[in-house]
UniProtKB/TrEMBL annotation:
Annotated source species: Dicentrarchus labrax
Protein name: Ig-like domain-containing protein
Chain ranges of the Ig-like domain: 39-133, 142-228
PROSITE patterns for this protein: IG_LIKE (PS50835)
Annotated stretches, region: Disordered: 274-339
Keywords, sorted A to Z: Disulfide bond, Glycoprotein, Immunoglobulin domain, Membrane, Signal, Transmembrane, Transmembrane helix
GO cellular component: external side of plasma membrane
GO molecular function, one term: signaling receptor binding
Length: 339
């Protein structure tokens, strides 16, 4: 045998031995999907059981459908960057110290929605392969709005923006009973995230605490928001309401009292004023009549005065005319004309 032949024989022996030993061992990845929220760091657990060293193995993680499909290509004790899919640059690692224990788990930093899917782990020389599912979720807290608040009933709207995968929306009353709500509206945004909204109409007969619950079973996530709908007929609920109840009635009574007294006072004033006005009017009437009578009498007096004066003048003139003869007659005519 040539030395080179002997060497290749030995390596073949070692290889056969390794395969035989490895045959006992199984590559096991988690059968449960691994769930992470976007932005989290996550470990995809895979290991050889019973544990045998994978320190000198080529460990390859792939995700079918990607191009290149290599997520992490570990050979000769290091990551082969050249083959790695660019979207995983600087985001993956193997636990090099754990390889000797057969632990070939891969960690992904800051997972994205696009990281979700099925991953495969290969141990080439051992001819082992296993797969694992990664589910990535995005969640957000719902917001409840009062759409309408008429007498007797309230329409509530619950909206939750930015979920992945698509969640479901349920409404619950204070006792945790499901309420029948309208259909859930779902919109998928350009970022692949879902916005869901749902409306429910509730009676205000009894005050109640309603819950909007948004849940996604695949990522085992629930977010909920409560809203308190007070009873219409007797709204004594919060401490501020109680304060209002204590303060408002007395204030109302006082204000009412003030208003009533004001009304009564103004009424009285008005009455007095009208009476005064009437009195004044009457008085004025009396004055005017007096005045008028005064005027009348004065007029008459003046007239009579004038008359008497005229008469006396006439008499005097007549006397003179009778003594003056013709001149008197002419004067008499002139005087008449002048009148
Ligand atoms: C593999 O190593 C990781 C990182 O140290 C650890 O979290 C995980 O539990 C290990 N798995 C096994 C099976 O030991
Ligand atoms: C409504 O119910 C939730 C739990 O179901 C509770 O945490 C919350 O305090 C309640 N709100 C009011 C105003 O009672
Ligand atoms: C879901 O999460 C809750 C706590 O958030 C946990 O108790 C439960 O075990 C989880 N279920 C699964 C199937 O992961
Ligand atoms: C509806 O309106 C009444 C009266 O304005 C108010 O007391 C009550 O808080 C409102 N309900 C909700 C749910 O906003």
């Amino acid at each position: 045998m040539l030395p080179s032949d002997r060497l290749s024989f030995i390596t073949l022996l070692i290889l056969t031995f390794k395969v035989c030993v490895a045959e006992q061992s199984e590559l096991i990845c988690s059968h449960q999907p691994i769930v992470a929220l976007a932005g989290d760091d996550v470990i995809l657990p895979c290991y050889l059981d019973p544990p045998i060293s994978a320190s000198f193995e080529t460990v390859v993680w792939t995700k079918p459908g990607l191009d290149p499909e290599y997520i992490h290509f570990h050979q000769d004790g290091r990551l082969m960057f050249e083959t790695q899919n660019p979207s995983y640059f600087y985001r993956t690692r193997l636990f090099v110290d754990e390889l000797q224990n057969g632990n070939v788990s891969m960690k992904i930093f800051k997972v994205k929605i696009s990281d979700a899917g099925k991953y495969f782990c290969f141990l080439r020389s051992m001819l082992k392969e296993a797969s694992i599912q990664l589910t990535v979720g995005v969640v957000s807290t719902p917001i409840i709005e009062v759409v309408s608040n008429n007498s007797g009933r309230v329409v509530l709207q619950c909206e939750s923006k930015g979920w992945y995968p698509e969640p479901e929306v349920v409404w619950l009353d204070g006792e945790g009973n499901l309420l029948s709500a309208g259909p859930t509206e779902t919109v998928r945004g350009p970022d692949d995230l879902y916005t869901v909204s749902s409306r429910v109409t509730v009676e205000k007969r009894h005050s109640n605490n309603f819950t909007c619950r948004v849940q996604q079973k695949d990522i085992n996530q629930t977010r909920e928001t409560h809203i308190y709908v007070p009873d219409d007929s007797f709204p004594v609920q919060s401490s501020s309401d109680r304060i209002r109840i204590i303060i408002i009635p007395p204030v109302c009574i006082i204000v009412l009292f003030i208003i009533i007294t004001l009304i009564i006072c103004t009424k009285r004033n008005q009455k007095n004023e009208t009476e005064q006005e009437e009195d004044e009017g009457q008085q004025q009437d009396v004055k005017t009549t007096e005045f008028l009578t005064q005027i009348n009498t004065e007029d008459e007096r003046q007239k009579t005065l004038e008359n008497t004066e005229r008469c006396s003048v006439q008499r005097r003139r007549l006397k003179r005319s009778s003594s003056d003869g013709e001149r008197g007659g002419r004067r008499k005519e002139e005087w008449r004309k002048s009148l």
